[in-house]
Amino acid sequence: MNFFENTRKPQGFGGKLMTKMMNIGHAKLSQWGFSNISVNSDAAVLDVGCGGGVNIVAWLGKCGNGHVTGMDYSKVSVAESQKLNAAAIKQGKCCVVQGDVSAIPFPDAVFDYVSAFETVYFWPGLEKCFFEVNRVLKNGGTFLICNESDGTNDADEKWTKLIDGMKIYTSDQLIAALKEAGFTEIKTYSNTKNHWISIVATK
């Protein structure tokens, strides 16, 4: 396994290192993504593919009276996210669980927001996973997707060759899969200079 496979599923020491690198490296993208939504302070949030847990920290800052759940299928990511958010977990404002986005381990209609930062590239079948996100969202709930790669930059092909199972999507492909999964109102935001995309979909 090459080191960059840890972007897909952090494992071992290399995985711990990768989660720390992702926390730092994705910060600007996350700030930009968050700027495209307004958040209720008492919201219930699920951050899918929570990695090193820094976006959980950001959500907690926006939802002082709410609750934030982080989910990742990597044990290393779950442990790192729990460590970073230990105080909030102790206060009952946060929990971090191991889980698979193609079968989210929560009942229907329990979250106001679901976020996916730099993670849909690795999801096993977009429609199925997006349907699961739709299922756990309340009516009127928001799904925020943030990707550093918008599918239009040829330089990104090196990553799909380097990382097994990675697929970079264009906004059109993401929108089509979201519609298929039952999302109605879909807005797209682009940072063309950096080839970033953010999609905000409402149930």
Main sheet attributes: strand count, strand direction, barrel closure: 7 strands, mixed
**Computed CA radius of gyration, to the nearest angstrom:** 16 Å
Broad structural category:
alpha/beta
Instruction: Output the strand order for the largest sheet.
Output: 3-2-1-4-5-7-6
Number of helices: 8
Number of strands: 7
Q: Which percent range fits the helix content?
A: 25-40%
Proportion of beta-strand residues: 15-25%
Terminal residue distance: 38 Å
Question: How would you describe this structure to a colleague?
Answer:
- This protein has 203 residues and is α/β, with parallel strands linked by helices.
- It has 8 helices and 7 strands, in the order H-H-E-H-E-H-H-E-E-H-E-H-H-E-E.
- The protein has a 7-stranded mixed sheet, with helices on both faces.
- A hairpin with a 4-residue loop joins strand 6 and strand 7.
- The protein is globular.
- The protein starts with 11 loop residues before the first helix and ends with a strand.
